[in-house]
Amino acid sequence: MFFPRYTPIPVRRRNEVVFWCFAVFMLLLFLGRNALWGMEGRCAEIVREMLVTGDIFKSQINSVAENSRLPLSYWFFLPTILLFGADEFMLRLPVVLAALVLLWATRKIAARLFDEGTALLSGWVLLSTYGFVFWARVAAPDMANAAASACAVACFLDLREDSGFREYFCFYFLLAAGAIFKGVPIVLMVCVLVLPQLFCYPGRYKKYINLRHAAALLAGAAAGLIPYWLCGAVEAGVFGKQAAGSGMEILWHNQILRILDATYSGEPVYSYLYHLPRILLPWSGVFIISCVVFIRERENLTPEFYALLKGMLLAFLLFSFSGSRRWYYLLPLVPFCSVVTAALLNGYAGEGKLVDWVLEIMYFILLIFASLALALPIALPLQGVIFRYHIPAVVIISSFIGGLLVVILLTFDRDEDNVVARFFAMPPRIASLTAGMAVSVTVLFCAVIPAFTVFRSEKPFALELKRLADGINPSKIFFFDNAVNARVLYYLAPARPVESGNDIAEFICRNSGGRVAVIAEDSVEAVEKLKNGLDALTVMPFDITAPHIQELHLSHESAGKDKLRAWIFDVPANVTLKQKNTANNIKRGAKNE
Description:
The chain contains 24 helices and 7 strands. It is mostly helical. The strands form 2 sheets. The protein has a 5-stranded mixed sheet with strand order 4-3-5-7-6, with helices on both faces. β1 (60-61) and β2 (64-65) form a beta hairpin.
């Protein structure tokens, strides 16, 4: 066969060093180059405002409460920012550390169920998975949540009949940590995942029925619930409020009721059937086949591994039938899917022609993309002629180096006993395929995508606005029609909340004689609203058609994409509302009569 069966290669210390060095290199490569994107802005601005206000028990964006998550989940980002400053690299560094913990936990689970070879291979599979690499470089608590849940499962698998309070409490404490990072539903997910383990052997559940376990359960529940109560209690004590239940309200409304609300998510029930394969790319096909093969061969599986498969199915169904469905909610399942995939790759499913065909297709697709990456320098003379943009040099260099490494790996990994297989301690051909995938994912997500941040206009606009608005009080900065967003606020970094709303005329009158900044979207609807608002003034304070700053419209973006524009000007001292002037004239006329 194209992927022949092999003699297992023992895992040595140097193979471990290669894995961890590659993991650290991958996760740190150009970590701070990419500007904030997506939900990173919300997390970054909440953390920044915590530091500005000194109130770390309150999540807010522009002084408006943001209660979708517990404020303590954002403490995860505070240490690096306090020590080294608030930039993109330091915001994402805690997530990288959580990703390394997740890799460790995944390997520990695989080693517990199989052997060190499968454990190492599961780490490489996870390291080359789209969902893992993407979220390992995004400033959000989701990776910390996945790490806590994987560590909890690893801790549970290590429980023995003579386990004491400390071992049980470790499991529940990790569940509490996951609940703080993301929410209470992760507790239910882990419990469902490990539930089949209680019954994989006859009477096994009985060893968990003891006072030590009960005491640890109560202590773990307290560790998870006290922070919720503390948020409300501290806020009430510090700010003199009557109620002290805001933290528990977050727990009830946003963590429990939301997952039961079928109208909360627009995603259909079956959406995870295509979201999970998308997250597991490029290993989606192998994982699906592995599930089919292992279920068919369930009689030959170890009870613990078969119980893990059943737990994964139950957890998947739990996610699917919850009211709240987002594709990244599946991230905690990715490490377990990597373990299942690695078990198949390491030969635990025996012979399988379908698996070999899938691996062959992956092999040749990888070879094609590596060859294209090697040929990318040919595009240098064509920049500006065929291509609209000049390709960043780092894209060309990293793609060429990555393509060269992949071709070398695929070329020298042919015989059963070869240097590539020994270097990675993985099966022949599987070694080159897995390492090649890891190199390709590294080039794409850690070098190419960050390099293309030069074609994004939001951060340059915000930094230019910050420069021109220097010295203007934040209360005199107005985002019209709620054009304010967390990412722009983070880069603008106001010491106090800025103004926002639709009443531009009232804002202008209130700041008569002062210097202000007005920011609005450039859409036709927003411009029309702005013009109508300014028509209520006796004096037109600025020219709508000539903004001082305009966020660039790039040619690769759709023509209808809304951009921001800003006007910075001195408000005339005599500006008033037309209606107010009319009312005053009527009063004066009545008085004269």
